[in-house]
Amino acid sequence: xxxxxIDLQGQYRKYKNEIDxxxxxxxxxxxxxxxxxxxxxxxxxxxxxxxxHAIACSNGSSAIFVSLLALGIGRGDEVxxxxxxxxxxxxxxxxxxxxxxxxxIDEKTYNIDPSLIQAAITPKTKAIxxxxxxxxxxxxxxxxxxxxxxGLTVIEDAAQSFGAKQEGARSCSLSKLATTSFFPAKPxxxxxxxxxxxxxxxxxxxxxxILLNHGSKERYFHSAIGINGRLDAIQxxxxxxxxxxxxxxxxxxxxxAARYGQNLKNxxxxxxxxxxxxxxxxxxxxxxxxxxxxxxxxQKGVPTGVYYPLPLHLQEVFKDLxxxxxxxxxxxxxxxxxxxxxxxxxxxxxxxxxVIEVINNA
Length: 362
Known about the structure:
The chain is an alpha/beta fold.
């Protein structure tokens, strides 16, 4: 049988009429940038997340970059984050001229270990950027307490956790700033690149809107150096449709994850901290011989993924930061044996049974 790693086609078929109508409306109006659909999306995202402001933007990377710019972070500053995440998290920190400072992860959740953050804080530290990985929110309560003690800002990188909850509150509403991505493969994805920045700070929200539009509030008049980080209206229309059904999809993802957890044998399955609700951006297991397991899955027609094979502190581009192998043992260990299985709200029980059978037999 043919199994999709993420079944975007199944999702599109279910919402096809509504999505096609939204795209057609944009094409008919020729209002491609900004406008009513983007404004409606921002209202819907703010309402859903619980943050006062949601500012749509071009992608998750620009969301991080502009958030850092809005805080005035740049050369000579330091931002604490995780080495076990997608490259963009640290890339955007470095792009501002600031220095990424890595802190190892908790081996159960794969999120940054709050107990290690204190030791990484220096007089140059300006922010902490926890990554809510694989759909589960990092320990924001403890991280916010540490940040408050040292006068630091917390920016949640919620590229994989939009829709998740911690003690009843949604991801993107648990810190001064949060960013997310609407890359097509995300739990809430558009049909191209897209992202958003969340804050309940009015002044910061206004600054972010200006920075995303070439530092301009009024056309041809510029008060800051910004970027072209706007979201297009077609993507906003797609997201407005998908957001209506997002809670239902989250519930279905949790059913799929629970079924994996109950039936997979002889592998390490994901751990969700008490009080957390994951959106299962990925379903990652750990195995003793990953290369062999990947080979068997490929032979049997089970698509897989590896997140992330080389931690950020060992990436060539960051060698000048002075980190070496062994500095973050948990991240390094997890990177060697973790792999992702098919996960979506549209994975059928028959398909999932086959994946489970292949993994268990292997």
